[in-house]
Design brief:
This protein is an alpha+beta fold. Helices cover about 25% and strands about 40% of the residues.
């Protein structure tokens, strides 16, 4: 007879492992504005709905083409961050469009700064939640 499987050992599928390796995301719900610089050098204003060190979701009046590479310029706290991003498939929202993106060129320094600022954003949100603000 074969031995029974050890039921106390955790089983992690490839998908679950991938989700655990994904950087944390912060829901900003429009509180941080972003300037989207298009390849033709025109700019579009948008707001972050969600943000992480690898990408996020922005709220736009009109969607951008999927796979379009743009430059995102935004302030988080007192820091300005610039990075190149690729736009992903947009989704209609009740007041405009939600469009995910992924960073394709974000300097290590900007990535570290963004990580630090997002973690402090989470800390401030947690403090506000505990004080009832």
């Amino acid at each position: 007879m074969s031995e029974p499987l050890n039921s106390t050992a955790p089983v992690v599928s490839g998908h679950e492992k991938e989700m655990n390796d994904r950087p944390f995301r912060v829901k900003l719900r429009g509180s941080v504005l972003v300037l989207v610089r298009l390849p033709n050098r025109r700019s579009v204003r948008a707001a972050f709905h969600q943000l992480s060190t690898t990408g996020g979701v922005i709220h736009l009046e009109k969607p951008l083409d999927e796979k379009l590479e743009v430059e995102l310029i935004f302030h988080i706290s007192e820091t300005t961050i610039r990075g190149k991003a690729q736009m992903l498939f947009p989704m209609w929202a009740t007041q405009g469009w939600m469009q995910p993106f992924r960073f394709v060129d974000l300097s290590d320094a900007d990535r570290e700064t963004l990580d630090t600022k997002l973690k402090s954003f989470l800390g401030e949100a947690a403090k506000g939640a505990t004080t009832g603000a």
